Design the sequence.
């Protein structure tokens, strides 16, 4: 396989770790020097008992003590440098991956059941802290265990055999620990993530929780979720704690056994007295990395799960290819056999939807609740991905466009205003001020969009005008005000295609009249508009009408033709059909059976 091919299939996580390779290699090099310097106390001990004490060499004692102090000072300095290298590796990982992970979580629709994806940044922090923390330092020290065992063999083969057997025992304990705790820790982590997401959702809807008297119920629900998470974590901790205790017992026992074996060998005059204490120290250093790894095993398991989750999240992100910069769409829109399944994939929300909208047309979308109207608008906007079929702009399939560039030419207003924490201006301007664009131009475009939909006068009467801060979800505004700001946001940058999902749901008569005027102005400008409405007062400005029922396209065509077919199907009498563009209204009571539309002059 060529180098180019290898790089092309490399995962973003692998590429980010490779970018930190110099930091890790340097840290591994410093670990080698550190482990060599850890021999200084052993050598010092040997010299004390084998040379200084028998000869009473005070001068020798002074010199070797000075050498020991210099060695320890160097060891401490190298340890500090190694720690700084790992901190810098952590910072580089954040620079390399944080943006990509955030982009991947926003680039694709996240299903409600995909809890781990919602916690992607938390998972990334777990992974980053593990690969740049104590667990990784233990990994760097672990290869030196055979070196210490070899030194023990040099002191005496029996001492080396004791340490070697101890290392095998600890390795076996580590393997048993992994087998016993892997599934428990994975289940505990998933339960913790579910609990966190549930609490965040309740906090976001705290007003509704209080208003509906759900506080006690939600508290009990979250306590139950936390209890489940705590129970699973306790089971994993109990399982791992036993192996950690066994590891500590083996290590301490081996140190004592090494002392005993050393003493026996010294009595038999097979080693010097200094080697007794040196052997005990070498055992401790040889087995310390294994104990450190077992102590950090929980974080290692969490990091392994985070690696899997992040790879799945990044794989669902936008493909890392340079898409051709297609011309800005003019507003021509096509859907070909569009199909969307439920989260459980056991039923279809949209089934084989096919239609075409010519640039500059205004299309109304009606149908009973649950017909798939909002889902259709979400798919057309790029907010979701269909399970089958294609969406085309000016003949080019949606996936052939760069999503960010395409979104600048689409104005999408969801059924829920979905405003974000920030100022009114930032919400209207789609937070483009954070991209380093000209702030004056952004201000002008935001005001122009607000003027276009008649929201400007309402905004300037707010406490701080366009700079009024909003809470998450548009808190601080009425539903009607939030909806008008969301409409202004959809108009920001004069997009060629507008997708409006019930834009008049919370508007009064004056606001609805202004919306009709906005639609007429959009038609004059040549923009394409698709608008979902239950209140059909705004449909007087439309060219075509689309009727959805149970996820299927029941009718689509010229407005007057569809009205006639609907009236014929529901058998009402059409009064005074003289006007070409009658005012439309839907009988809400008939919605379950299909919209009954009356026309009047």
Sequence:
């Amino acid at each position: 396989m060529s180098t180019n091919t290898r790089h092309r299939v490399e995962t973003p996580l692998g590429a980010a770790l490779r970018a930190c390779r110099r930091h890790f290699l340097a840290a591994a090099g410093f670990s080698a020097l550190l482990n060599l310097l850890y021999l200084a106390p052993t050598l010092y001990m040997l010299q004390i008992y084998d040379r200084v004490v028998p000869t009473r060499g005070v001068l020798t004692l002074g010199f070797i003590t000075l050498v020991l102090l210099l060695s320890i000072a160097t060891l401490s300095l190298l340890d500090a440098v190694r720690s700084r290298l790992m901190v810098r590796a952590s910072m580089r990982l954040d620079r390399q991956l944080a943006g990509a992970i955030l982009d991947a979580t926003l680039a694709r629709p996240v299903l409600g059941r995909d809890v781990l994806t919602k916690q992607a940044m938390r998972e990334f922090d777990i992974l980053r802290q593990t690969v740049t923390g104590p667990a990784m330092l233990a990994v760097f020290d672990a290869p030196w265990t055979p070196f210490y065992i070899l030194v023990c063999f040099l002191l005496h083969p029996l001492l080396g055999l004791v340490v070697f057997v101890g290392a095998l025992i600890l390795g076996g304990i580590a393997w048993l620990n992994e087998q016993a705790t892997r599934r428990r820790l994975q289940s505990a982590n998933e339960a913790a993530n579910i609990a966190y997401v549930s609490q965040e959702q309740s906090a976001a809807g705290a007003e509704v929780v209080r208003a509906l008297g759900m506080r006690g119920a939600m508290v009990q629900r979250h306590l139950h979720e936390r209890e489940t998470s705590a129970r699973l974590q306790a089971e994993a901790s109990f399982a791992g704690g036993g192996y950690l205790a066994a590891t500590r017992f083996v290590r301490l026992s081996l140190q004592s056994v090494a002392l005993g074996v050393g003493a026996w060998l010294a009595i038999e005059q097979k080693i010097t007295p200094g080697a007794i204490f040196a052997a005990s120290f070498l055992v401790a250093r040889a087995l310390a990395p294994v104990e450190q790894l077992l102590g950090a095993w929980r974080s290692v398991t969490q990091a392994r799960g985070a690696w899997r989750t992040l790879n799945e999240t990044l794989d669902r992100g936008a493909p890392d290819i340079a898409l051709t910069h297609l011309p800005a769409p003019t507003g021509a829109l096509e859907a070909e056999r569009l199909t969307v399944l439920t989260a459980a994939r056991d039923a279809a929300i949209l089934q084989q939807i096919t239609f075409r909208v010519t640039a500059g047309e205004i299309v109304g979308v009606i149908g009973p609740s649950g017909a798939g109207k909002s889902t259709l608008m979400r798919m057309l906007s790029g907010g979701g991905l269909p399970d089958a079929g294609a969406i085309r702009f000016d003949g080019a399939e949606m996936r052939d466009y760069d999503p960010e560039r395409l979104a600048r030419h689409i104005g999408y207003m969801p059924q829920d205003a979905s405003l974000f924490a920030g100022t009114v201006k930032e919400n209207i301007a789609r937070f483009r001020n954070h991209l380093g664009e000209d702030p004056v131009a952004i201000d002008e475009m935001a005001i122009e969009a607000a003027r276009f939909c008649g929201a400007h006068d309402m905004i300037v009467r707010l406490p701080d005008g366009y700079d009024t801060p909003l809470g998450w979800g548009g808190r601080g505004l009425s539903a009607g005000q939030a909806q008008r700001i969301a409409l202004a946001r959809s108009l920001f940058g004069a997009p060629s295609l507008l997708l409006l999902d019930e834009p008049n749901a919370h508007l009064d008569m004056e606001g609805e009249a202004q919306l009709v005027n906005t639609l007429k102005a959009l038609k004059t400008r040549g923009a394409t508009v698709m608008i979902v409405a239950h209140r059909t007062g705004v449909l007087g400005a439309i060219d075509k009408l689309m009727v959805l029922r149970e996820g299927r396209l029941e009718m689509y065509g010229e407005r007057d033709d569809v009205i006639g077919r609907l009236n014929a199907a529901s058998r009402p009498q059409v009064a005074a059909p003289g006007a070409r563009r009658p005012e439309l209204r839907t009988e809400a009571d008939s919605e379950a059976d299909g919209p009954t539309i009356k026309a009047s002059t």
About this structure: Residues 215-267 form the longest helix (53 residues). Confidence is low (pLDDT under 50) at residues 1-8, 110-115, 572-601. The two ends are 74 Å apart (CA to CA). The domain at 11-315 is CATH 1.20.1560.10 (ABC transporter transmembrane region fold).
